[in-house]
Design brief:
With about 220 residues, this protein is mainly alpha-helical. About 65% of the residues lie in helices and about 0% in strands. The chain folds into two domains: about 60 residues, no CATH class; about 110 residues.
Length: about 220
Amino acid sequence: METITERMTGFNTISAELFIPFPLMEKFQDRDYFMQIVAMANSPDEAEDAKVEITRVMRKIRGLGPDDPETFRVQAIDQFINQFKSIASGITAAAAGIVAISLLVGGIGIMNIMLVSVSERTREIGLRKAVGATPAAILLQFLLEAVTLCLVGGLVGVMIGQGFAILVRMIPGARLEQATVPTWAIALAFVFSAVVGVVFGMFPAIKASRLDPIEALRHD
């Protein structure tokens, strides 16, 4: 009796398998037929030829004529792979939509916060302009503040993601010891955070840079 050293995860996967002789299997199970048989081609290029050959042999074993419908099904692994890719693509598209909506909502929130900040600091902006601050300096200041807020939000999100990955790894029997947030995802999170800060912080920053210093100093 020999245990397998490799296994493939996916649909209908058996977590533990044994290779045993057919007579021994018949002793364990009160039947003389098989629910499924797994065959492996010599190479992926021969998968289709193997599928055709298996179909021919099965039809012969079952005594099916040329016009008789098949009473069995032969499936190649690429069919399951295509199904998995289709499901994964759907999940990815849904996740991308959720992320896009989250970025939009977060960006609008940042813009509103910065607009309130500009309104509350109007006199400060007017004073800075009165002592020589250029519109570009004011614009850069508020842009940096918006980007900083977004980066802090990105950092919190990464920490939550890492914490969730740690919790998943701790689930007994889940076999998700490798669950982690990849480095590229962390870098991408900070890049997106910075981009959101620039895009949605631009309007408040421009508004602040264009304030008239005299009118700003009169602001209550």
